[in-house]
Amino acid sequence: MVSRVLEEIKKTIMQRLPSRVHVAKVEFEGPELVIYTKNPEIISENGDLIRELAKDLRKRIIIRSDRSVLMEPEKAIEKIHEIVPKEAEITNISFDDITCEVIIEAKKPGLVIGKYGSTSREIVKNIGWAPKILRTPPISSEIIQRIRRTLRRNSKERKKILHQLGNRIHQETKYENDWARLTAMGGFREVGRSCLYLQTPNSRILLDCGVNVAGTDEKTLYPFLNVPEFAPDNLDAVIITHAHLDHSGFVPYLYHYGYDGPVYCTTPTRDLMTLLQLDHIDIAYREEQPLPFNVKHVKKCIKHTITLDYGEVTDIAPDIRLTLHNAGHILGSAMAHLHIGDGQHNMVYTGDFKYEQSRLLEPAVTRFPRLETLVMESTYGGKEDVQPSRNHAEKELIKTIYTTLRRGGKILIPVFAVGRAQELMVVLEEYIRTGIIHEVPVYIDGMIWEATAIHTARPEYLSKDLRDQIFHMGHNPFISDIFHKVNGVDERMDIIEGEPSIILSTSGMLTGGNSLEYFKWLCENEKNSLVFVGYQAEGSLGRRLQKGWKEIPLKEEGKTRVYKVKMDIKTIEGFSGHSDRRQLMEYVKRVSPRPEKIIVCHGDNYKTLDLASSIYRNYKIETKTPLNLETVLIQENG
Ligand SMILES: [Zn+2]
User: Which stretches of the chain drop beneath a pLDDT of 50?
Assistant: First the structure.
């Protein structure tokens, strides 16, 4: 059946391309259509034609050269350096024999692409190899290097995976799409282990697959993948909305237990998710509570991941089209829009989202082509969950820093590595650069540095304001020299004994990690300040300090030592990556078109129920608040 579809497509392509073009082969690679040709230069000169063809065929089209026209690599490298301006700062060139692509890594990838793609067209015209252009981040990222290496080394296997997937996606549908249902597999009336299972007569999709980081046993840690209707080996696709472990942490397990299909997410989500998954495995191993999967499965996940940009419409099953849209929560976070059948049903799953402009990101998208079912989070869905504005939060932060520095103290800010840390870096950089707080070193400890490096590799996902700064004003706040990476214990001691400074360190709730070490050194001096900018869970040290505990017993090398807390403890609200109650309600009001049904997830029991009933009362939209393991019929039979 696939070959028939492909034959039809090939016929259309031949008719539309100029007759001089020699098409060697047309095939599916995952959701994309690949045309191999002996005259890539002619096709590349007809960019509009390809764009129109893609639109009419409703496929993403990639042009590759037939092997017979490839220039010898050594000569090709010389030629590339001739064509590309020096200012592009190429850092690496490698060749992929399998896909006939040349991978060019450069500090300014825009200059390798050229205006409207002119430079990259020039490259293919001259050397035959189709250029794949990647950004060399200004802060080097180990994770991105590792991912690129894995993909390069496994190019042959990857091509096979994509080829098989392409055939699966482009089958004709077997049944009429007359129903669709959604099962709550985790993260309903709770926060953690988010997982939704969508079934239609033709396909099965998993949306998010997280762990509950605060879980204590098997019953609360992982999603309910043991329901009888779920089997990893007949799943069509997994969609990950963002990198936080409560949304992505259990994906490697799927690969351990027979899943062999794709993961769809944005590029930053892939990078950050890999960082967090590897760290999770590492910590669990050190704490002697190993996870039911390992590094091998993370690698398998990388090989199966297909990255999508916001707004890119993609076939992921014979009857389902996926489009990701900005969710404003962390870098690369997305809302997933699913177009089912011939538009019989359209649903949006928000994942975690922020409906407010932040320093780092634009607010969540509210416009969709069609929408019947909205599945939304309710982390701050309770009536009382109204947070101060960003502006107010920033002022509070600056005030605290100012007064602490004036009395000669240090400021410790425990933060989660991804999201809040970078938001704060942008704020601090601006206030120091403009002289509102005087220049002090800002120390970046632990995984925050690597997460920041990933931010510098994907500037196109940042807010418009930051993109303008980076691309047009040549000013990248993340690489400012006020920031210092902390390497090891010795440097930490120097910081403790040194001049006033600001320290950003993980973990965000002082449950372990270097932030706890800094706390021990700093807490008994009344000049210092501890600032919480994120949620502190019940039972964490952070929460106890917020409650005003003045004596903290901590275990050290088998003995317990009591720390007297003399440092100033401050909590600043308003930096959250989640929408507060007002923003959630405003989002429902603004989302367009107006959904017929809203399913509320990702919140404590009371908050989920409170938000759902308020939505119904205010907007008269039907709401549902399923428990884990419940199924909701989103598109009714008939
Ligand atoms: Zn999140």
Answer: none
Ligand 1 centroid to residue 392 C-alpha, Å: 23
* d(CA 594, ligand 1 centre) in Å: 25
For residues 366 and 363, what is the distance between their CA atoms, to the nearest angstrom? 9
Residue 470: helix, strand or coil by DSSP? helix
- 378-433 per-position pLDDT tens digit: 999 999 999 999 999 999 999 999 999 999 999 999 999 999 999 999 999 999 99
Q: 185 vs 174, 206, 209, 219, 600, CA distance in Å?
A: 26, 9, 9, 12, 14
Q: Measuring CA to CA, which residue among 147, 580, 108, 95 is closest to residue 386? A: 580
How many contiguous H segments (helices) and E segments (strands) does the chain have? 22, 28
Edge-to-edge order in the sheet of strand 204-209: 305-307, 263-265, 237-239, 204-209, 195-199, 180-186, 631-635
Q: How many A from CA of 333 to the centre of ligand 1?
A: 8
The whole-number pLDDT of residue 1 equals 58
pLDDT of residue 287: 85
Q: How far, in Å, from the CA of 180 to the mean position of ligand 1?
A: 26
| Cα–ligand 1 centroid distance for 247 (angstroms) | 7
Q: Give the span between the Cα atoms of 552 and 558, in whole angstroms.
A: 16
d(CA 495, CA 232) in angstroms, rounded, equals 49
Tell how far the Cα of 182 is from the centroid of ligand 1, in angstroms.
21
The C-alpha atoms of residue 325 and residue 365 are separated, in whole angstroms, by: 6
- Round to whole Å and give the CA distance between 373 and 376: 10
For the chain, the first-to-last Cα distance in angstroms comes to 27
Q: Where are the beta strands (DSSP E) in 438-507?
A: 442-444, 483-485, 502-505
Q: What is the DSSP string of 557-592?
A: TTEEEEEE--SEEEE--S--SS--HHHHHHHHHH-B
Share of the chain above pLDDT 70, in %: 100
Distance CA 252, CA 557 (A): 34
CA of 165 to the centre of ligand 1 (A): 29
Taking alpha carbons only, the member of 409, 475, 479 closest to residue 440 is 409
Question: Residue 577 Cα, ligand 1 centroid: separation in angstroms?
Answer: 8
CA separation, residue 298 to residues 253, 267, 314 (Å) = 9, 15, 24
Among candidates 240, 243, 184, 252, which has minimal Cα distance to 207?
A: 240
Half-sphere exposure at residue 399, Cβ-oriented, CA atoms within 13 angstroms: 9
Short-list 474, 468, 467, 396, CA closest to 431 = 396
| Spacing, Cα 355 to ligand 1 middle (Å) | 14
CB neighbour list of residue 148: distance below 8 Å, 6 or more residues apart:
134
C-alpha 84 to ligand 1 mean position (Å)? 40
Distance 193 CA to ligand 1 centre (A): 11
C-alpha distance from residue 293 to each of 13, 250, 281, 284 (Å)? 45, 9, 8, 11
User: Who contacts 616 (Cβ-Cβ below 8 Å, separation ≥6)?
Assistant: 622, 623
Residue with tokens 């199924």: 631
- The neighbourhood of ligand 1, an ion, using CB within 5 A, equals 244, 352
Q: What separation in Å is there between the alpha carbon of 36 and the centre of ligand 1?
A: 41
Q: Whole-structure pTM over 0.85, yes or no?
A: yes
Span 471-512, pLDDT tens digits:
999 999 999 999 999 998 899 999 999 999 999 999 899 988
- The rounded Å distance from CA 335 to ligand 1 centre is 12
As a whole number of angstroms, the distance between CA 289 and CA 530 comes to 30
Interval between CA 352 and ligand 1 midpoint (Å):
5
